[in-house]
Write a structure and sequence with these properties.
With 407 residues, the chain is mainly alpha-helical. The protein folds into two domains: 192 residues, Growth Hormone, Chain: A (Up-down Bundle); 188 residues, Growth Hormone, Chain: A. It is 78% helix and 2% strand. A hairpin with a 5-residue loop joins strand 1 and strand 2. Helix 1 packs antiparallel against helix 6 and helix 4 runs antiparallel to helix 8. The N terminus is likely disordered.
Length: 407
């Protein structure tokens, strides 16, 4: 396979890679998603079955989120500097599998479980930057958005397979069997990364550098860039509003009298929609530009949250989860291209991707805490109104303060 890409001086060069490498890139996205796709709901059930209190389960869940939050930027910095990205991804995949396979045997030791979850969260923070770096190293900046759309399509397909597999495993082999399936997926993910041929990877381009630049820009340039600051704030507010909505929706479905099957469908409905939306974002993020496509994801969120208030029954809520699939499917693709655009030729692509992921993680930790307090003291309607307002603020920041970044 051959693609052309242009440097900042508009010189043209040929970027060539094998179909086997492209298959490998899709495979690691698929198995990485299958590995961690449904672990949090299963984790809560598994710990509850072993007599854990709800507050202890909450602490255990938060431990993984804190590990991810603390390591996002360091993971991005290391992904910029290390040359053996395939090896690092393989090691991270195997270590994640080891963390989760040990949990069923440690459920009587809260400190050990919390420690394993913290470690797994820290390790998983490497997945995003490494996957973005491998895609950029393989196809170059001009095809990154299109290829990211395909990669994210496989990622969401992995989540769908993980959800269906988990339902079958829990039914026939018990909750603990899901943790052992993670070990199998982790081995498959680690093996798949070596389908990518080293000769196909441009390690210089993987850090966001073009042929004319041998050194990355200073870290201070990222901090001083107004567009980067605006994107960071918009992403934080977006995920502050978005992170608690899926679990909140599941609780709302139960509050409206929905069954456990309908509650599970809240996840599957969104994931099914994410696959075509990732493909859409990969194509039209190039044709229309990053801003209008990502803007759809930002503005669909307040509409989605407000729609839950007027929904009259649990089944309507399930159909409204399609809107979640639209936003998440677009975001996962275009944010990678946004980081590549903002660092094009200057380096620190993975550092910026890690910085954006930190904004996601902060929102992901703070949002559920805020939603729990709101639901407990003000009810579902007031909670949805508050988070719709936060989502609208995020959309406004993105619309008015972030320019188009595609060259």
């Amino acid at each position: 396979m051959t693609v052309a890409w242009a440097s900042t001086s508009q010189q043209r060069a040929e970027k060539t890679f094998s179909r086997k490498s492209f298959v490998g890139l899709n495979a690691i996205n698929f198995f990485q998603a299958e590995m961690v796709g449904v672990l949090l709901p299963v984790l809560g059930v598994a710990l509850q079955e072993h007599g854990w209190r709800y507050d202890a389960i909450g602490i255990a869940t938060a431990a993984g989120g804190v590990g991810t939050l603390l390591m996002q930027v360091p993971a991005g910095v290391l992904s910029d500097r290390i040359a053996s990205r395939r090896l690092l991804f393989g090691v991270c995949a195997l270590l994640t599998g080891l963390c989760f396979i040990g949990i069923p045997a440690l459920t009587s030791q809260a400190v050990a479980v919390d420690g394993m979850l913290f470690l797994s969260g820290a390790i998983q923070s490497f997945f995003g930057p490494l996957l973005g770096a491998l895609a950029l190293a393989l196809v170059g900046p001009r095809l990154l958005n299109q290829v990211s759309g395909i990669n994210q399509g496989w990622n969401h397909a992995g989540n769908i397979v993980a959800a269906v597999s988990a339902m079958l495993l829990v039914r026939f082999l018990g909750v603990s069997s899901v943790f052992y399936s993670v070990a199998v997926s982790s081995v498959a993910a680690a093996a798949s990364v070596f389908l990518i041929r080293g000769a196909d990877l441009d390690e210089h381009a993987a850090a966001g550098l073009n042929p004319e630049n041998l050194q990355a820009m200073p870290w201070s340039e990222l901090r001083k860039d107004r567009t980067i600051r605006a994107v960071f704030i918009a992403i934080f507010l977006f995920h502050l509003a978005n992170a608690p909505i899926l679990p909140l929706t599941a609780l709302y479905v139960k509050d409206l009298g929905g069954t456990d099957t309908l509650m599970t469908a809240t996840v599957l409905t969104a994931q099914i929609v994410m696959v075509p939306m990732a493909m859409f974002a990969g194509r039209y993020g190039d044709l229309w530009g990053r801003k209008p496509v990502l803007g759809i994801a930002f503005w669909i969120l307040p509409v989605r949250i407000l729609s839950y208030i007027v929904a009259g029954n649990a089944r309507t809520i399930i159909w409204l989860q399609c809107l979640d699939g639209i936003g998440a499917g677009i975001y996962g693709v275009v944010v990678i291209s946004l980081a590549a655009d903002l660092t094009r030729g200057r380096g620190r692509f993975n550092t910026l991707a890690g910085l954006f992921a930190t904004a996601v993680a902060i929102g992901g930790v703070a949002g559920p805490v805020l939603s729990g307090i709101m639901v407990q003291h003000a009810g579902f309607r007031a909670t949805f109104l508050l988070f719709a307002a936060l989502a609208a603020t995020a959309a406004a920041v993105f619309t008015f303060l972030v320019p188009e970044t595609k060259l």
